[in-house]
Amino acid sequence: MLFSENFKIALRALRANKMRSVLTILGIVIGVATVVALLAIGNGATASITSSIQSGGSNLLTISPGRQQQMGPMAGQSRQVSHMYYADYQLLERGLKTNITAIVPVYQASYSVKFGDESFTSNVIGVMEAHKDVRSFTVAEGRFISDGDNKAQALVAVLGGTVAHDLFGDLSPLDKTFSINGVKFQVVGVLESKGASLGSPDDSIFIPIETGYKKLYGETALYNNKKTVNNILISVDDTAAMDTVSAQATYLLRRSHELKPSEEADFNVMSQADTLSTLNSVTQTLTIFLGAIAGISLLVGGIGIMNIMLVSVTERTKEIGLRKAVGATRNQILTQFLIETVTLSLLGGIIGILLGVGIALAFSVSGLISSVITADAILMAFFFALSIGVFFGLYPAMRAASLHPMVALRYE
Amino acid sequence: MIHAEGLTKVYQMGDNEVRALDGASFTIEKGEMVAIMGPSGSGKSTLMSIIGCLDVPSSGQYSLDGVSVESLGESGLAEVRGRKIGFVFQQFNLLARTSALENVMLPLTYAGISGKEREKRARAALERVGLGERTHHAPNELSGGQQQRVAIARAIVNEPTILLADEPTGALDSKTGVEIMDLFQRLHRENGQTVILVTHDAHVARHTERIIRISDGHIVSDEANPNPIQAGAPRNDE
Ligand SMILES: Nc1ncnc2c1ncn2[C@@H]1O[C@H](COP(=O)(O)OP(=O)(O)OP(=O)(O)O)[C@@H](O)[C@H]1O
Ligand SMILES: [Mg+2]
Prior knowledge:
CATH class of chain B: Alpha Beta
Number of domains of chain A: 2
Largest sheet of chain A: 6 strands, mixed, barrel
Distance between the termini of chain A: 28 Å
Helix content of chain B: 25-40%
Number of strands of chain A: 13
Strand content of chain A: 15-25%
Order of helices and strands of chain B: EEEHEEHEHHHEHEHEE
Number of helices of chain A: 13
Radius of gyration of chain A: 32 Å
CATH topology of chain B: Rossmann fold
Largest sheet of chain B: 6 strands, mixed
Number of strands of chain B: 10
Shape of chain B: globular
Order of helices and strands of chain A: HHEEHEEHEHEHEEEHEEEHEHHHHH
Structural class of chain A: alpha+beta
Distance between the termini of chain B: 35 Å
Oligomer: heterodimer
Bound molecules: adenosine-5'-triphosphate, magnesium ion
Radius of gyration of chain B: 18 Å
């Protein structure tokens, strides 16, 4: 008997019990939609984070305090086990000579900022002149923080695009005076927007780091009476020299921190490549975790289908008996019921794919995450649904096929 | 030709053995029209299922056109059912939500006959049972008598040599029952098909040429009925 005829029989049987069919495939729909949407969103997130990390420059080393590197969702809670000092920056500035474009310290903290009636909390970053080139910022208006500003401990600030707009609206921010934590600063420049990407300066305010230590940070920036920094950024002129520079920096810092060879370092030297690989391992773990959840939901969906098919076989005992009485073989009955289950699960799979793509697109349109839908993911979901149909359909189909033809005459 | 020798069918019910058939022997020639009668539980349906190759006997021999059924495997039996046997049931057993035409096409589908030919033959079979106009009605849009006609069309569509009917008039009123008997007699007369039907109703049985009575799985009488009633003639037993 032809496949198309079995398919017609299957569709008729499924139509006969519309509500039940819909409920039966719900598990598969949800499972497949989850897989498709998660993969699309995950791929999109990875792609955008990767590109934003790479746009930060592939020859940047970031030195940060801490015995452990913490990435991902728990990063905010990483325990602060050690400090980096302004003295560390000075040490590296003096000690590192070859292949270095620039070395800059960074001190950042949140402060309330105020202009007229406008007041909110913002990320304030103390920087040096070279910071602009190290992070590849572009100045839209005015100028960036200069070494002169640092020397003079000038009360000047450069604003990220979003902050400038939030604080001054449509007014031109240049030369305006606003306050950070009650201290008056004058705007000397505004940065070009980089969009919502990792390390974007849009939401930050930049001030001369020396001004910060003297006039803004106060005690909080001190530890054991020494000035602390959050990061030290090293821009290397040749990507091939990254490892050498990293090793030299590590050596200098270990020596000045008086670490024994067996001791773990109390700082981290990370390149963009390190950051990427850490990120990849995080996204991989997440993908496996979410994949397992989706897998369980598909499994449950499959069991649901099997359950309903077993009920259906019992209900249709008489029909099966009749088909056998008019000459259907065991294999023909087996095929018929298998195709019915596969049709169900494929239907669920297709609806699930459409739903998943819809969810992924909704994420893109909302601007949250630009999801990336790949043919691979859709094909995988499709074949997953197909194999669930075959796997969970086999047992009910075998039950149907092994019914005794006599039931046509007896079963009521 | 149907030949049975010492047919026995034993069902195991827990610790109890039920001997539904207990040594039944008989021969039915090609083209005969036979009624099987007997009280409820006497083994009539069991006998029909063995004749119709739905089941095989526990012991004894049964051969159909000289072929012993024990030698046929499960798929061999399915093929014989599809090719040589047409079954009619008391409850019609039509597929719900399926048109008369498609119900009649069912055996042809399993026999592997192509779409066009299938429809042509199914229409012809429906014509012969007088339902040429009702091909697209679903069972729930047909009367009991009409449903049984569809079932008979389905039974004859493969041009089987043997037509088996288990209480074909049992679910119908007597007038409709007579119309169905008329149809069986006509098929028997016009095509020379072997017709074997089970009935409780002595009047229905007298429409056939031979009446076999069974009780407790044994054949208790096997008599010719030289002057079968022609369907539609007035009843004379009440
Ligand atoms: N699958 C089975 N398992 C156990 N016992 C069975 C089975 N099928 C039939 N029987 C028994 O076999 C005996 C004969 O049954 P059968 O259906 O052949 O009777 P029948 O003559 O057709 O009865 P009726 O006129 O009520 O249809 C009965 O006692 C019945 O209970
Ligand atoms: Mg019976």
